[in-house]
Amino acid sequence: MNPGISSPASKRGVRFLLQTLIAGCSLLLAAVAHAGPFVLAYTDGQVEASYSNLQAFHRNLSAVGLGSVYGLTVTGQLHQEGMNPTSANIIRFAQSKSLPLYPTVSDYNQGIADFDPAISHSIVNDKTLSAGSIKQLVTLAKEGGFAGINLDFEQVEPRNAKAFSAYVKALGNALHASGKKLIISVPPKSSDREPEYLQGYDYKALGAAVDYFQVMTYDQVGPGWSSGGFHDEVWPGPGSGADWQQALLGYAVSRVAPSKVLAGLPAYGQDYSIGNRVHWSAYQEVITEHRAVIHRDAASATPYATWGPVRTFADGVEWTPERAQPVLWYDDAASIQSKTALVAKLGLGGTSVWAMGYENAEFWTALQAGLKAGGELLPAGRE
């Protein structure tokens, strides 16, 4: 056959090949478009509403973080002290919907009712404890039918930075070898050196070892503290301001591939009259009860409600009943949209929420609107 002349059969073959390629490209583009930002919502196994809200709002999620169930001890033993009927129901439901489920494994110590630096210190500096705990975590992911592990060590001391990075790398390698993924939750940092007490977290090394890098951009200000460099370092103030988030996430993406980074959103605020958290679903009740006046802080794009004159206190001044202030700092639909818009603005992998059971349908509507609108909803005059 003359190679310069095409037969009808060969033309049909070329057309078929082109049609196949076009169809394949269309499917690929559709899949990419459908994927969108990664939305990780944590459940709180100690809150019954966490299960009912998962049932109601699971279609908004890419994956579920199973919070308040698993942890490691100072001797490297995996425990499930938080397992209860609510947690078991969350696991069954998520798996029934084929939602990727990541058990959060923390360094929380029930004995001291706080995250314990002794746990990470002992595990990452002892080869036997390190290897043993990694083996247990891989087994948990495999035998539990989980998508992977979400490591949540919140009190890693600066002296353990290298050892912790090596531990996370080894854990990531072990999980990946078993077809599982690793998410790490980290406290928010503003630079390589600040704040000093968070220098146990080498963002660059940790980010290279994991699949998703969840930055806990919440608790900026609370009863007794105010994160450095923002809001004049006084409390009361925003729990997670847009300006604060943008600065901290901007640092994160300078050290970690942006596509891995997940911003953190709280579904709770702070009532400074009682010195404690209030869930999103209860905000209106507090505002109505006190006949509060609603304001909005421009820099943080965050609302607050007052029912009397408010005094401020410096970071580190402890909240006491004598220092109670008539103000609720919280989020509303507009502020959630502004903060979620940072995902598109910074090219992040997605967002994360702590925690299901605290929120309602309005929260998810606002979050989805922010993801779609992207940078258009940032506060005026801010990049």
Automatic annotation (TrEMBL):
Organism, scientific name: Pseudomonas saponiphila
InterPro entries membership:
Chitinase_II/V-like_cat, Chitinase_insertion_sf, GH, Glyco_hydro18_cat
UniProt xrefs under SMART domains: Glyco_18 (SM00636)
Taxonomically, the superkingdom here is Bacteria
Domain GH18 residue range list: 37-374
**UniProt name for this protein:** Spore germination protein YaaH
- What Gene3D superfamilies does this protein's entry cite? 3.10.50.10, Glycosidases
MF-aspect GO terms: chitin binding
Keywords for this entry? Carbohydrate metabolism, Polysaccharide degradation, Signal
Entry annotated with the keyword Cytoplasm: no
Signal is among the record's keywords: yes
Any matching Pfam family: Glyco_hydro_18
Query: Which GO BP terms, alphabetically?
Result: polysaccharide catabolic process
Tell me the first and last residues of the signal peptide. 1-35
SUPFAM superfamilies, sorted: (Trans)glycosidases (SSF51445)
